[in-house]
Amino acid sequence: MPLRRVLPSDHLLLDIKYATADNFTGQPVYKKPLCFIHADAYEPLMAAVRAAAAQGLKVKVFDAFRPQEAQELFWAHTPDPDFLAPPEKGSNHSRGVAVDLTLCDAQGNELDMGTAFDAFTPLSFHAAEGVPDHAKRNRQTLLTIMQGAGWVMNPKEWWHYQLPDAKRYTVLRDRDLTEHMM
Ligand SMILES: [Zn+2]
Fold first, then answer.
1. Is the distance from CB of 99 to CB of 61 less than 8 angstroms?
2. What does the pLDDT look like over 105-118, one tens digit per residue?
């Protein structure tokens, strides 16, 4: 199986937003608050967690693998190519090699990144000028950790990172998550 389950740990928090109503669609999209990622992306994610821990920080993951069915639902809700990949093109989340995440302090409080996760506004762009300096620094801290662990940033979403060769992976669907993984 290409997908691997990601379990929470001391320095890896999970807040799978699409399993709750606290997401841009206003309703739960995933049946369970579980986190999966492509096996090739697993070690890079753990490397980021270790790098964050070395700075006294924690990583909080909002989304990783996203079945193609969920991407189709998102696109029907918000067909905005600045923030979502059209389903026919395929999201790198559906390839299992993208992750949405932020940093938390040692107490688990999210660092201020200037916008919330999935804020569909130009303020979410990595280099947005209207963001306070401390939030710019927090974004930079996340960028340095993620790039050091082998991830590539997305200029339009401070929370989104993916593997450099993401497009060579296959788009996966609900059926690729088998019961024994959950
Ligand atoms: Zn993303």
1. yes
2. 999 999 999 999 99
Q: For residue range 78-124, what is the model confidence (pLDDT) as tens digits?
A: 999 888 999 999 999 999 999 999 999 999 999 999 999 999 899 99
Ligand 1 center to 89 CA (angstroms): 15
Cα of 158 vs centre of ligand 1, distance in Å, is 9
Residue 54 is assigned to a structural domain of this protein:
yes
What local confidence, expressed as pLDDT, does residue 141 receive? 98
Q: What 3-state DSSP class applies to 171?
A: coil
Q: Write the CATH number for 94.
A: 3.30.1380.10
Strand pairing of 3-6 and 12-14?
A: unpaired
Determine which helix (DSSP H) or strand (DSSP E) holds 137, and give its type and residue range.
helix 133-148
Residue 102 forms part of a structural domain: yes
- Considering the domain boundaries, does residue 181 fall inside one? no
Question: Choosing from 72, 88, 157, 179, which is the catalytic residue?
Answer: 157
Query: Domain span at residue 65?
Result: 3-175
Please say if 69 is a catalytic residue: no
Residue 164 has pLDDT above 70, yes or no: yes
Identify whether 66 is part of a domain.
yes
What residues have a C-beta under 5 A from ligand 1, the ion?
Answer: 100, 160
Structurally, the chain folds into a number of domains equal to 1
The count of other CB atoms within 10 Å of the CB of residue 48 is: 26
